[in-house]
Amino acid sequence: MDTDLLQQLNVERQARRAAILITDLENGGGRLLREGEPAGGGLEEAAERAFRSGKSTIVEADGRSLFLNVHVPPARLVVVGAVHISQALAPMAAIAGFDMTVIDPRTAFATEERFGSVELLAEWPDEALERAPLDAYTALAAVTHDPKIDDFPLKSALESGCFYVGALGSRKTHAKRVERLKALGLEEAQIDRIASPIGLDIGASSPAEIAVAILAEVIAALRKRQVAAS
């Protein structure tokens, strides 16, 4: 691999940005396509599919055989609230391939005994997210029912372009949340991205069933997300 291309690719990976290394299988020539850049050469649809699926593939374009080596950041799931739903969600998220982090300043809930090997941050979300900022390859689920804990990460998730933002609560609870977020400076169009009530509507009632509904909605948002315009 060309050293310069490798350096460019490493920069994108370290910044948690998606990129495709395109190699011409006939002459070995290559170039780096960053998400959001024009693909050109008849590659628009193939590149969009590759960014969305995260799977490398060989395609034919303009009479050339090209290998698309896809590098997409590992999807993260940040859950605000060390509650029963989060406990049920943790093993499911791991099976689905998500790196999961639970944030909750309430030390009585955020314990290793309840969450095992899951990354657990027993601190306020503003402190935790300062060290590990949210990004476009992160999903955020706020499940504490406590505005003092949930509101800041919801605002951060919307401003950071997280591919999924969900919040637990009834429609009445969410209406109050909307007013608080508007007071914090968010536009209605941004707030409309919040999935609330959280999770797919499968009639879930138990914490485990709600966790299934949340994870299904997160996966759907990841695989059907709008790939950055090119």
UniProtKB/TrEMBL annotation:
InterPro entries cross-referenced by the UniProt entry: MoCofactor_Util/Proc, XdhC_Rossmann_dom
Domain of life: Bacteria
Classification via Gene3D superfamilies: NAD(P)-binding Rossmann-like Domain
Domain (XdhC Rossmann): residue spans on this chain: 77-218
Extent of the signal sequence: none
This protein's name: XdhC family protein
The organism's taxonomic lineage, starting at the top: Bacteria, Pseudomonadati, Pseudomonadota, Alphaproteobacteria, Hyphomicrobiales
